[in-house]
Design goal:
Elements: H1 2-13, H2 15-40, H3 47-59, H4 62-92, H5 100-135, H6 154-163, H7 165-192, H8 201-227
The chain binds protoporphyrin IX containing FE.
Length: about 230
């Protein structure tokens, strides 16, 4: 057991070990995003569909908490390993840039740290807004977001939330940064997995952008539909 822990720590201490940890935690987070988007898009099927889905999630009880803690661990590990990698890259950076590709790589990894931290701020705001604020009664003292049977009226909560233009604006800004983060992240993932060659690189870059546009466009469709009056 002790030697296994030591082997894991030794693996993590290497740069490739950290990259693989970043890639695996990213895969877990991407899985969450796909599931979260699929659930949220039920809003277009109407109040009953999204409210029933939210009730099913909450009925998971203990399991929901296991999933939440798992998600938190993934986020923590992803951030810690990324920041350590960024610090190691900075320490190894030459004083003068000789090759413009080095400069580009440094800029894009700096953008990854910046967009990643903005997404973290967004997620904290998002949790305070929806999960803590509306669902757990902080803003909901008069039961505005409860149905007659006591279940949560997630549909109304989303529509009311996104009617506030600066709230929707912040979501759209964060989703734009998430798209940039995902597009770069997904194409780097292929690189870490050793699948990138000069021939496949443009293909994986396109796959990164395609994934980012589908995911972020899907999320963005909800505030946009509310602001356009399509969801009321
Ligand atoms: C228009 C976009 C989005 C909408 C309408 C939305 C909606 C929601 C709602 C209603 C909840 C509460 C779920 C519940 O407890 O029943 C929630 C939770 C959450 N959302 Fe989102 N979300 C959006 C985008 C995102 C994005 C882009 C991320 C991540 C980058 C994200 C991360 C989370 C997390 C981590 C939770 C907490 C999960 C939990 O407590 O179990 N959401 N979201």
């Amino acid at each position: 057991m002790k030697s296994l822990i030591l082997a894991v720590l030794r693996f993590y201490a290497s740069s490739i070990g950290k990259k693989i940890v970043v890639a695996l935690s990213a895969l877990g987070l991407l899985g969450f995003l796909v599931g979260h988007l699929a659930g949220n898009l039920l809003i277009f099927k109407g109040p009953d569909a999204i409210n029933a889905y939210a009730a099913q999630l909450h009925d998971l009880g203990g399991l929901l908490w296991v999933a939440r803690i798992g998600l938190l661990v993934l986020v923590g590990v992803h951030i810690a390993a990324t920041l350590q990698l960024a610090a190691a890259n900075r320490a190894a950076r030459p004083q003068e840039y000789v090759v413009s590709a080095t400069l580009r790589a440094t800029r894009s990894s700096r953008l990854m740290v910046l967009s990643g931290l903005t997404i973290l701020v967004f997620v904290i705001y998002h949790l305070l807004h929806f999960t803590v604020g509306n669902l757990h009664g902080f803003y909901d003292a008069d039961g505005a977001y409860r149905l007659e049977d006591g279940r949560q009226n997630v549909y109304k909560m989303m529509v009311d939330g996104f009617r506030v233009w600066f709230n929707s604006g912040f979501y759209l800004l964060a989703l734009g940064l998430l798209a940039s983060h995902l597009s770069h992240g997904v194409s780097s993932l292929f690189q870490t997995l050793g699948l990138t060659t000069p021939r496949t690189r443009p293909l994986f870059r396109l796959a990164g952008w395609g994934f980012a546009v589908v995911i972020c466009g899907g999320f963005a469709s909800i505030p946009v539909a509310v602001l356009a009056g399509l969801l009321k």
